[in-house]
Amino acid sequence: MKNLFYEKSLKMTRIFFVAALCLSISGLNTFASSHAEAPLTSMDRYADNTDVYAFRSSEAGRAGFVTLIANFIPLQDPSGGPQFFRFDDTVQYEIKIDNTGDGLQDITYQFMFQTNILNRNTVLGMNTINIDGQITSLADLDYNMPQTYSVRRIDGSTGPNGQLIASGLRMPPSNIGPRTTPNYETNLGQPAIYPLGTDGSRVFCGQRDEGFFLDLGVFDAIGYRSLAPTGGVDTLRSFNVNTIAIEVPIQSLTRNGAVPTSTTDPNAVIGVFSTASRGSLRTIAANGTRSQTGTFVQVSRLGSPLINEVVIPLGLKDAFNSLSPVNDAVAAPAVLDPEFPKIIRQALGAFGTFDGSFAGTINLPPAPRNDIAAIFVTGIPAGAVPGLPNYTTFLSDGQPHEYLRLNVAIAPVAAGATGFSRLGLLGGDIGGFPNGRRVQDDVVDIEVRALLGGTPFTPTFNVSPNNAFNDGVSANFEGFLTRFPYLQTPNAGNTPRPANFPATQTSAPNEDGGEMSYINGFPGLSYLVKPKK
Question: 17 Cβ partners below 8 Å, 6+ apart?
């Protein structure tokens, strides 16, 4: 595959690196974003963009829609009160779409939040006993710190201020516990799904179960408990996140405003990423109140999962958070010669897995890694994947632009449906990652295999262990909803949290109170849903 930007990358890196650092440092005197993978961004969790998803809706009757999800505020302990977890009223949260391939957003959905306090004399916070202490509806007076939000769409027809498409929408409280927030999904979760306009669009903002599943033993010198699909530890199990989810018609996102029918149609591909921005000036008054004003400055950014974490070098991580994808030439050398697969090879050679059982040699593709560039920063050209239906996720003007790429002409493939694989493309399922990202996609295993060269793009290296690498965690234990917003009901506070070492349980309740059993297979994961009796 032709390298589209390697020759220019080093020269452009110097230019963009200086610009990126200037932009990043200008805001770091008063705040930092919250991506844990960046050294200056670990103390602003409420602007921490943790995961982005983009997929054709698989809910019955919604195949003509695209679901876009951005999660924030990671590692929420469900019992972390009394203030619990709200979006930050001073942060501008956005989901952005590039449908032309120039690295600039053509469409933006902008979310701003506002908190109202009913009773300032209570010693509690999000909840208190204004009536009976239970929050059984979004309008309940015991919801003491209700948060509302507005939604704007910004595109070429609206001007820079955009069009206000919703305001005053009330977000549900955190799932405080069985006494305070009983029957959470029925009373608070589902009622917080709102229609947007008359085109069938919907929106949800609120707390959800942390659906990202992985074994974070990876950062202890690749200390995985297992390199098989099971046997690992889902480190994020039983934590919550705050979710922004919006579902819109396909034609509202494409460059020509039409619903494409061909999977090789360039108009079918959109690029999706999310950002969080803060005012450039932070003021702390003598009475302790705080405000942020001035021009909004981007402090967090996320498109494809794990890119900043395992591809971008340490000296660029904070700068990368401040950049628009149009400036991603700064990351080109890291993509074309990634360090992380070399770390995996060295660590496993020295230590093996957690129990020392792995013994083998991992051969890696040489630089420049044009296969990695195609997957993450240019998209996959039509006809590039032998043995699979012809399709494209290519979206680029010849320069690298990192974001999720979704071909909206590819029919949705729901978990449990024929052809579904948790490994997406690597499992023969073109409906999954790196074609967008569904909530069930095992992006950790997919990306690690890609970094090791275990893909069809590098056939010489598409062998074991490169193409059979797993982290031992193949699914979110809590499962997912089969309807918008797809992420599961948040874990309740005041409830014993499960031990997560070792991971032995393989089933969890689904949205109807039945049991979702995970049948482990290779290369995909099959789902069997048992209805409630």
Answer: 316, 319, 330
Pairwise CA distance, residues 324 & 333, whole Å: 17
CA dihedral in degrees (325, 328, 332, 334; nearest 10)?
-80
Structure tokens at 418: 């024929």
Rounded average pLDDT over 127-137:
97
Rounded alpha-carbon distances, angstroms, from residue 371 to 309, 337, 365, 380, 451: 19, 11, 9, 9, 9
Lowest-pLDDT choice from 7-16, 194-203, 383-392: 7-16
Asked whether 309 and 330 are in contact (CB, 8 A), the reply is no
- The rounded distance, in Å, linking the Cα atoms of 289 and 46 is 17
CA angle 106–108–109, rounded 5-degree value: 155
| CB of 205 closer than 8 Å to CB of 245 | yes
Q: What is the mean pLDDT of the chain?
A: 86
Report how far residue 529's alpha carbon sits from residue 517's, in angstroms, rounded to the nearest whole number: 6
Task: Return the higher-pLDDT residue of 500 and 65.
Answer: 65
What are the distances in angstroms from CA 368 to CA 306, 374, 380, 462? 20, 12, 17, 17
Mean pLDDT of 467-482: 94
The Cα–Cα gap between 469 and 454 comes to 9
**Beta strand residue intervals within 416-466, DSSP E:** none
Residue 124 has pLDDT above 90, yes or no: yes
Spatial neighbors of 128 by CB under 8 A, at least 6 apart, are: 119, 122, 142, 144
Lookup result for tokens 């230590």: 351
Q: Which residues does 365 contact at the CB level (< 8 Å), separation at least 6? A: 371, 453, 458, 460, 461
Pair 446, 423: CB distance under 8 Å = yes
**Distance of alpha carbon 56 from alpha carbon 252, whole angstroms:** 13
Residue 166 bridge partners (DSSP)? 151
Token digits of residue 494: 């005041």
Q: Give the residue from 400, 359, 357, 365 showing the smallest Cα distance to 379.
A: 400
Is the pLDDT at 501 greater than 60? The verdict is no
Model confidence, pTM: 0.88
Banded pLDDT at 244 (limits 50, 70, 90)? very high
Quote the CA–CA distance of 338 and 524 in Å, as a whole number. 27
Asked if the model's pLDDT at residue 23 lies above 70, the reply is no
User: Is 171 within 8 Å of 206 (Cβ atoms)?
Assistant: yes
How many CB atoms sit inside 10 A of residue 264's CB? Answer: 17
For the chain, the 3-state helix, strand and coil shares in percent, each to the nearest 5, are: 20, 25, 55
Helices 340-351 and 443-452: crossing angle in degrees, nearest 10, is 90
* Residue-level length of the chain: 533
| DSSP string across 347-397 | HHHHH-STTS--------PPSS-HHHHIIIII-PPTT-STTS--------S
Contact by Cβ (8 Å): 440, 475: yes
Cβ atoms < 10 Å from Cβ of 499? 12
Residue in the structure block whose two tokens are 């202490």: 133
d(CA 27, CA 505): 45
